[in-house]
Amino acid sequence: MNDKISESWDSCVKCGICRSVCPVFKEEKSEPFVARGHITLIQELIKGNLNFSDKLSKEYLGKCLLCTTCVESCPNNAHTDLAVITARTFVNKIHGVPLYKKIMAQVMSQRKVLDLSVRMGNMFSSFMFKTVENVPRKGVNVRMKNPIVEKDRLLLPISKRTFLNKYPESINGKNSKKVAVFIGCAVNYSYTEVGDALINILKTLNIEVIIPKNQVCCGGPIYYAGMIDKAEKLAKKNIELFEKIEADAILIPEPTCATAIKVEYPRIFEYFSNNKYLEKAKKLSERVRDPSDYFYNDTDLINILKNKKLKKEHSVTYHDSCHLNRSLGIKQEPRELLKAIENLNFIEMKDADRCCGNGGTFSVDFRETSLKIGKRKAQNIINSTADTVVTGCSGCMMQIAEALNIENSKISVKHTIEVIDKALRGEDL
Ligand code: SF4
Ligand code: SF4
Question: The CATH number of the domain where 277 resides is what?
Answer without folding.
Answer: 3.40.50
